[in-house]
């Protein structure tokens, strides 16, 4: 019986973090302008890791206080941490800057959209 209780607590904690991480990641993607890279899993992971980064910054600023990550302050600082992650993700992924003289095929496709005409 104790193993079932521990599993239920773990499952509850996991689902809480997945839901909260998704909300934080969506809030960060909503605030950041422009097209957003990554899909659902990237949004989820960005929200969870952003919450951990934001709460670590909050703990660094106020070392005497204890903070719950899943709270109002946790949401605000988690969104801040996720924005930092999304900024680095866009910079390193080449979504803002073109490096070198040549455009990659991905950027060329994004910049020049062709219309294909089907002739009968």
Mean pLDDT: 78
Q: Overall 3D geometry?
A: flat
Count of distinct strands: 0
The largest pleated sheet is described as: none
C-alpha end-to-end distance: 70 Å
Helix content: 55-70%
What is the element string, with H for helices and E for strands? Answer: HHHH
Q: Total helix count? A: 4
Outline the low-pLDDT stretches: none
Determine Rg (CA atoms, Å).
20 Å
Summarize the structure.
The chain is an all-alpha fold.
Structure description:
This protein has 120 residues and is an all-alpha fold. It has 4 helices and no strands.
Give the tags.
single chain; 120 residues
Topology:
Layout: H1 2-31, H2 40-61, H3 72-92, H4 105-111
Helix pairs in contact: 1-2, 1-3, 2-3
């Amino acid at each position: 019986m104790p193993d079932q209780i521990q599993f239920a607590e773990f499952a509850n904690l996991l689902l809480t973090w997945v839901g909260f991480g998704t909300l934080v990641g969506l809030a960060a993607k909503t605030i950041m302008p422009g097209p957003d890279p990554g899909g659902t899993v990237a949004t989820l992971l960005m929200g969870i890791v952003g919450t951990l980064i934001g709460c670590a910054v909050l703990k660094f600023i106020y070392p005497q206080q204890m903070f719950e990550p899943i709270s109002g302050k946790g949401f605000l600082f988690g969104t801040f941490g996720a924005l930092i992650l999304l900024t680095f993700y866009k910079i390193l992924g080449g979504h803002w800057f073109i490096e070198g003289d040549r455009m990659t095929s991905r950027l060329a496709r994004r910049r020049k959209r062709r219309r294909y005409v089907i002739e009968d």
